[in-house]
Specification:
This protein is an alpha+beta fold. Helices cover about 30% and strands about 30% of the residues.
C-alpha cells in the first residue's frame, strides 16, 4: 500500500502469509531485481505470536538455519536470509531473479 510504513507492510505480509505476528527489526538488505526493476527491503524480525502454517499465499512455512537455506531457495532469495542471520548492517545486492549479479 502506498501510504503504509514498510515495517507495517512486513508485519501485515508475514501475518497474511504465515499466520505469525512479528516484531519488525533492523533493515538487513536492499535488493533489486535488475530484470524487473523491483526493489525489495529485507528486515530482521522476531515472532511474537501465532503458529506458523501454510496459507493461500504460502504453500510451505519452515524455520531454517543458514545451512538449510542454500539447498531450498534460489540464490537471489536465499542470500536475503543469510544476510539477516549473519550480519548487522544492510547489504545492497542486485540479481536477475535467480542469481546474484556482480
Amino acid at each position: 500500500m502506498l501510504d503504509e510504513d514498510p515495517r507495517d507492510t512486513v508485519r501485515r505480509e508475514v501475518l497474511e502469509e504465515t499466520c505469525v505476528t512479528v516484531e519488525t527489526g533492523q533493515l538487513t538488505g536492499v535488493h533489486k531485481n535488475m530484470r524487473l526493476g523491483v526493489v525489495s527491503l529485507v528486515f530482521r524480525g522476531r515472532p511474537l505470536s501465532g503458529a506458523a502454517q501454510p496459507t493461500a499465499e504460502a504453500t510451505e512455512v519452515a524455520w531454517l538455519d543458514s545451512a538449510q537455506v542454500n539447498g531450498r531457495m534460489a540464490e537471489a532469495f536465499g542470500i536475503r536470509l543469510i544476510d539477516a542471520l549473519e550480519t548487522y548492517q544492510p547489504h545492497i545486492r542486485i540479481h536477475d531473479g535467480q542469481h546474484l549479479l556482480s
